[in-house]
Amino acid sequence: MKQHIIPAIRLTVATLLLFAVVYPVAVWGIAQLSPNQGKGEIIELNGKKYYSNIGQSFTDDKYFWSRPSAVDYNAAGSGGSNKGPSNEEYLAQVQARIDTFLIHNPQVNKPEIPVDMITASGSGLDPDFSVQAAKVQVKRIAKIRHMEESKLLELIDRETEKPLLGLLGPEKINVLKLNIALDNL
């Protein structure tokens, strides 16, 4: 028995040191070499600071709406709703989001609404949405801002982030950056 306990204790101490001390210090050290020392990308606008890697709430009709959040965009506690696709409360919430979207975007048909406009992400803090989610809002924004739709489509193309290495992940748009660029037009 002694021949099994001593190696088990050594292995426990070694993994504890590796995963509780060495690994966190290494990740922290690498973060210090990155721009902004691992604090994410901070955008300062009109005296306020915004983190571009945390979802922001945009519900004004003159802006591109952001993806819904299960945690009310509170970065102190990220998380999903944990409600399954057959949960009646969840289905009612999604239907309410669809109805609200259609009221504010009457030219859009229900099947044209991208799923990321009516469902929250797993973290509830996703700062990005799909290109389709931006394009489906163009008519509303163009009408309110008295702009040509083509200018908004050019803006969407300019703000679209391509997949990593052209392969990994979908095309996406950061909603905060898109709306800041929209205000700068």
Automatic annotation (TrEMBL):
This protein's UniProt keywords: ATP-binding, Cell membrane, Ion transport, Membrane, Nucleotide-binding, Potassium, Potassium transport, Transmembrane, Transmembrane helix, Transport
Pfam families: KdpC
Topology with respect to the bilayer: Single-pass membrane protein
Subcellular location: Cell membrane
Coiled-coil segments: none
InterPro entries to which the protein is assigned, alphabetical: KdpC
Domain of life, per lineage: Bacteria
NCBIfam families named among the record's database cross-references: kdpC (TIGR00681), PRK00315.1 (NF001454), PRK14002.1 (NF010606)
Family: Belongs to the KdpC family.
Functional note: Part of the high-affinity ATP-driven potassium transport (or Kdp) system, which catalyzes the hydrolysis of ATP coupled with the electrogenic transport of potassium into the cytoplasm. This subunit acts as a catalytic chaperone that increases the ATP-binding affinity of the ATP-hydrolyzing subunit KdpB by the formation of a transient KdpB/KdpC/ATP ternary complex.
Oligomeric form and interacting partners: The system is composed of three essential subunits: KdpA, KdpB and KdpC.
Protein name stated in the entry: Potassium-transporting ATPase KdpC subunit
Source species of the chain: Dysgonomonas termitidis
Gene that this sequence comes from: kdpC
